[in-house]
Design a protein that fits this description.
With 464 residues, this protein is α/β, with parallel strands linked by helices. It has 2 domains: 6-278, HUPs (Rossmann fold), CATH 3.40.50; 283-428, Isoleucyl-tRNA Synthetase, Domain 1. Helix content is 45%, strand content 14%. It contains 15 helices and 15 strands. A hairpin with a 2-residue loop joins strand 13 (281-283) and strand 14. The termini are far apart. The relative contact order is 0.13.
Length: 464
């Protein structure tokens, strides 16, 4: 393996050799879900992507601390710091306590991640469990002159920060355009008069009287802004500067841009060396998302219960479908694409199993070592799972040809190819053999979650 690992850094917009800050230790932070609904196909992509990255880095000998948060407070409907908290709104509609919603959909998320064979993160902090750290960080930003209080809320001062820092560098936004764009929104949104500038964003929001999720702070009883949560939690568990921050491309702005500003505003340091962003899964060319109402939940994919689905798809089919495209390219949903992924995955795993039945010969007619070398080169080239899989299918071709008697391999080459297929298919790409009953078992889990929700609703107290 002569190719060092390279990854695309969204900050520099270039492919860079990965060099850890403190080898062999690697700090990885990935933005987790806002738990107000069931996970959909678009959610699966970042967590599969960074699961493969974690698996591969560990294989290379790095000691990875993988932190993935749970957003259970503070994520408002509108990025301009207005609207209802997404979890509080769901709780009101379901007539449940907000933390009942959090537990319900966090458990559902974990079930889906296990089904997809994603390795759990080493640390999974919740925003509601780190209010103290967030308040402390807001105090630091205010002390450095980059934030101000207004009517019990605290806002980041983008204009003052931009005098000595480049706000917009990660996302490619121009500060003047941001101010002008935010100004047009200001006419439409209530409460924007609290801000000195419409481009400023909330670090702490004063809670309205009816707001249930609130905590005491030096400024008001309220709740943290969405962006400060990840800054505070990544700093607590990975330090002021760490190696890799990952997430979907839709988080570039304002979330990740604001994270950089908050970290620089509090301690004067850039928080991350490498920013990695996966692209979107689309339906008919449009981003899949809850806000657009065009999403398919993972439960629906596993059971086939959605009007756009012609059949059910196993978790490993979903995983393989996502890995067949490079993480930085868009991936358009289609039943044809999922069915092709299902056939391809079954062919790959069947060949991996078939190696035990191959009969060795005195000589080899194929170069099996090239399969492993090329697969390594693909993963080292910006985690290109699509190309790695294409090289594994060369291994599939060789296995099937040897089994059919049209090619030959020595015992050593059979052992080498067996090891290669098992290493990449199972250990690094995270595939696993599935049984027919797995779909029924998953459906049983989903039905249990639905019954728990119904039970919780029937026993609710008079909070609403």
């Amino acid at each position: 393996m002569n190719h060092p690992l390279h990854i695309t850094n969204s900050l520099s917009r270039q492919k860079e050799q990965f060099i850890p800050l403190n080898s062999p230790f690697v700090g990885l932070y990935v933005c987790g879900p806002t738990v107000y609904g069931e996970s959909h196909l678009g959610h699966a992509r970042p967590y599969i992507t960074f699961d493969v990255l974690t698996r591969y880095m560990q294989h290379l000998g790095y000691k990875v601390r993988y932190v993935r948060n749970i957003t259970d407070v503070g994520h408002l409907e509108n990025d301009a710091d207005e609207g209802e908290d997404k979890i509080a709104k769901k709780a009101r509609l379901e007539q449940l306590e907000p933390m009942e919603i959090v537990e319900l959909y966090t458990n559902s998320f974990h079930d889906s991640m296990r089904a997809l064979n994603n390795t759990p993160p080493g640390i999974e902090p919740r925003a509601s469990g780190h209010i103290i750290e967030q308040i402390a960080m807001v105090k630091e930003i205010m002390a450095n002159g980059y934030a101000y209080e207004s009517n019990g809320s605290v806002y980041f001062d983008v204009i003052n920060y931009s005098k000595s820092n480049d706000y917009g560098k990660l996302s490619g936004r121009i500060i003047e355009d941001l101010i002008a764009g935010a100004g047009s929104e200001r006419r439409e949104l209530e409460g924007q008069e609290e801000k000195r500038n419409p481009a400023d964003f909330a670090l702490w929001k004063k809670a309205s009287p009816e707001h249930i999720m609130r905590w005491p702070s030096p400024w008001s009883d309220g709740f943290p802004g969405w962006h400060i949560e990840c800054s505070a939690m990544s700093k607590k568990y990975l330090g002021e500067t760490f190696d890799i921050h990952g997430g979907g491309m839709d988080l570039l702005f304002p979330h990740h841009e604001s994270e950089i500003a908050q970290s620089k505003g509090s301690c004067g340091k850039a928080p991350v060396k490498y920013w990695m962003h996966n692209n979107m899964i689309t339906i008919n060319g449009q981003k899949m998302g809850k806000s657009l109402g065009n999403f398919i939940t993972l439960r629906e994919l596993f059971t086939g219960e959605h009007k756009l689905l012609t059949q059910s798809y196993s978790p490993m089919t979903i995983r393989f479908f996502i890995m067949q495209a490079h993480y930085r390219s868009t991936l358009d949903f289609s039943n044809e694409g999922l069915q092709a992924a299902e056939k391809g995955m079954n062919k790959l795993l069947a060949a991996a199993t078939l190696t035990s039945k191959l009969k060795p010969s005195a000589t080899s007619t194929s170069d099996v070592k090239a399969v492993r070398e090329n697969a390594y080169a693909a993963l080292n080239d910006d985690l290109n799972t699509a190309i790695a899989i294409s090289h594994l299918f060369e291994g599939v071709r060789i296995i099937n040809s040897v089994y059919a008697g049209t090619e030959q391999l020595t015992a050593d080459d059979i052992a080498h190819l067996t090891e290669t297929m098992n290493l990449f298919a199972y250990q690094l790409l995270g595939l696993k053999d599935e049984v027919v009953a797995s779909g029924d078992e998953l459906e049983g889990v989903m039905q249990l979650l639905l019954s728990l929700r119904a039970d919780a609703k029937s026993k609710r107290f008079c909070y609403f």
